[in-house]
Amino acid sequence: MKLLFEESSQGRHLDLIPDCDTPEYRLSDDALRKRQARLPELSEVDLSRHYTQLAKQTHGVNDGFYPLGSCTMKYNPRIDEEMAGLEGFADIHPLQGQDSVQGSLEVIYRTKELLCEITGMDDMTLQPAAGAHGEYTGLLLIRKYHLDRGDTERVNIIVPDSAHGTNPASATMAGFKVINVPSNAEGGVDLDELRKVVGKDTAGLMLTNPNTLGLFDPNILEITKIIHEVGGLCYYDGANLNAIMGRVRPGDMGFDCIHLNLHKTFATPHGGGGPGSGPVGCKEFLRDYLPGKMTGKNENGYYLYTPAKTMGQVRSFYGNFLVVVKALTYILTLGKEGVKEASGKAVLNANYMKERLRKYYDVAYDTTCMHEFVLCLERLKKEKGVSAMDVAKASLDYGIHPPTMYFPLIVHEALMFEPTETESKEVIDEAVDVYVEIYEKAQSDPEYLHSAPHHCPITRPNETEAARNPILKYEWQD
Fold this sequence. Notes:
Layout: H1 4-7, H2 44-56, H3 78-84, H4 87-90, H5 102-119, E1 123-125, H6 131-148, E2 156-160, H7 166-173, E3 177-181, H8 191-197, E4 202-207, H9 220-229, E5 233-238, H10 250-253, E6 257-260, H11 262-265, E7 280-282, E8 294-298, E9 301-305, H12 321-357, E10 362-363, E11 373-376, H13 378-384, H14 388-395, E12 404-405, E13 414-417, H15 425-444, H16 446-450, H17 463-468
Parallel strand pairs: 2-3, 2-4, 4-5, 5-6
Antiparallel strand pairs: 1-7, 6-7, 8-9, 10-11, 11-13, 12-13
């Protein structure tokens, strides 16, 4: 497929922008380019066909099975998009007077209330723009709390070795030192190792439960107790909330603050560059440190206020508001029982798929999982030379998006599957049949898998070369 630059034809154009109805403002000559930008020249039909071809080559949840682990790539009801597109939501401005946006303030307030109920928190900001941004904000809450009390020695954040990669990065950005804790034989936090590293320098613990192995840690109450006993705080990474929402609340596990991924769990399409939303919830004693403007309610309606000891703004205005509209629509549509049913089916689907695949592939932790599970292809690679990458690439030929590869790092040749609650038994059965066929191919013709995929627009690229020498711009052939 050609690039737009390669399809360009001199003098060809299209008019999509209406005539300007305001006075023209011209920049001074020293602020202008010395020559016209070299942009592709195309007709409307050229442009339309180009992007239609691109769309046909893109795989999303509307195209087929998408079991990307720890990311919850699930189908989202169209009604959520329709609500976010309503004129009263889509066409407002953040600088409007509060009296003219009472409905929007109510959306923020009600969403906050419902998310607090689901997570067991006392208050929540919807300002953070995405998951990692929420992590950073939650860590700033912890930092602000300790510094406000004059407890300057608390500089360590404890992170399990099975954590999401953003956890240590966020902790470092927030000014903390990261202390890694290994997992035990069951895939949970090693309590003995945890006790060895806690102390007066412990600011907090970052943890997701269930973890990236798809396992719910049975020692979670003991884990949070260990941190609290030394004066640290417990932060919950909400990336895997899809497995427990409506059933177990992080606040009841002993967590003091939490971030959520509305773009994973609560109906905004995930990926593609955004928009995301990473609300941060907290217990009562952290409420005054929350960022930005918060929404309150009194006898006169909804209003905005600034928390007493706020950390300040972490994003412009009030966050990605239309993502919040989608989340509220999703929660209200499902209702209390529907939210619980969604998490139940996510866990059911993952265990069903795991049980079918375990007859062919090794399961990293062969026990009841939550919303996702991890296969270990180390033996397959040793015996047949077929890697996790080979299996993942081969799945593309069957119209299946690959699962997460080589993560978490504590599992060698890992493939992580998260089928989500929106997939039917028939779809999961078809996917399992594909992976069984790939397994059998690995036994009979491993070389075939080394060059997979064979039927996609792009086959097996040289990923090392692409990473080290990326082509980031088009070079005109003069």
